[in-house]
Amino acid sequence: MDQVKTAINSTINEINDINHIINMVHPPADNATVVDEENDITQVIESIASCTSINQFINNQFTNVDADSDNDKNNRLSDDELMAMIIRHTQIVNGQESLDSLSLRYPSYRIDVDKLDDVKKQIESCFYLVQSASPSLPSSAALTPSKFDGQIISMRERECSMLSLSKSRWTSNNKTTKNPLGHICTSVVYARGNVYVFGGNATPTYNRFSLSEERWYDAPIVGVDGGYLVSAFYDGDNHIYLVGGFNESGADQDYRFLSRVDRFDLGTQRFTHVGDLEFGLWRPYTYLHNKDTIIVVGGWRSGMAHRDVLSFNLQTKLTDVLYKGVIDEHASCCFDPDGNCFYILAIDSFKRYDLSTQVNRQSTVLAKCPTFAIRCPLVHDGSFGIIYLYGAGNNYRYSTQDNKWTLIKDNDNVVSRSNYGACLIKQ
Question: What pTM, to 2 d.p., does this model score?
Fold first, then answer.
């Protein structure tokens, strides 16, 4: 008999609540129907037997519910309340909850405001502690101090100096990084008032020199490969891209050559993976062309020099060959974004390679540089031309208008800038 009572109560109460869901009206607080005495059971059975439809039983058994009546208009269910009741009925039908343990009325909550405020303060203090232990994020509107604008910064290991193009004068940067930075000849980038160096000597870190503070910061490379001999460039907007590199933690020689194309967000200082080249490369020269294509020049792949020029499309993630066999492992390279071309300086030649057309791309032989050393920095500036940093007494400037090299009469005291990293600081 108890089981019969429970079954009848559950069924009637569910019908009653469904009735309120259909009419989108709150069930009253005393909504539950409880069948207890034997005469109650008899009355319910007689009522069921006398009804020819479920609607007739509802009208006979329950208080009339009319969503349009004045009494019920103020008691209508909101969309969220209606969805909550439907979800709970679905859980009952699917056997996830029992009728006895579930109230179908929209739940109400009491919030301890004081406790909530205390939790908020604790969370804020946690953020403060994390930020205090991390290098400060650069301002998104960071400006280059005028004294650095138009200079070239050049560095390797613990030596760091700057060349003023307008004065042809070098100044030493006495602020040094925590660790010496080697293998960074293609890893130095200027962006938004800061100079970045990625990797170096196998350390999974990047370094940032704030020009406004004249101070170095370092932080781990997280989420993507670290390594060294990484190629990096600024897209002119909000990201620096990392291409290739070498990672000593690889399981074998081929794996250590990184094929990665990763992106560094200047605002959040976080790394994300973009795609992969068809094979791993270290120390290629890379540039962004037409905002959607990365130009990859030369480098070194497993067991051999990579002498081709590739394009990597950021949308399709596909790699194509633009030029074959045009660069050796000792050459230097720079990119002219306004001229849609790049330059390669080799031991016996200096050439310009066109990127403006999709077919019949042309190369142009230019005046040979009077000096040459392995992978010395080659830096393009729209005002001063192309600067080749060999070292003391042998730094040259190339005029794109006159096709002529001119010795820079500077005070460089570094004998050789071979394998130095360098970039132009330009606001």
Answer: 0.68
Residues 6+ apart with CB under 8 A from 329: 298, 300, 305
Q: What is the mean pLDDT for each group of 10 consecutive residues in the chain (427 residues)?
A: 67 72 65 54 72 71 58 62 71 56 52 73 59 53 76 94 96 84 94 93 84 92 91 96 86 75 96 96 95 95 92 95 93 91 96 83 94 97 96 97 97 96 93
Kindly report the CATH number that applies to the domain delimited by 141-425. 2.120.10.80
Torsion from C-alpha of 238, 244, 249, 255, nearest 10 degrees: 140
Closest-CA residue to 388 (of 152, 172, 166, 121)? 152
Report how far residue 156's alpha carbon sits from residue 389's, in angstroms, rounded to the nearest whole number.
13
| Residue limits of CATH 2.120.10.80 in the chain | 141-425
In terms of Cβ atoms closer than 10 Å to its own Cβ (0-12, 13-18, 19+), residue 402 is exposed
Q: Which residues contact 411 (CB under 8 A, 6 or more apart)?
A: 169, 170
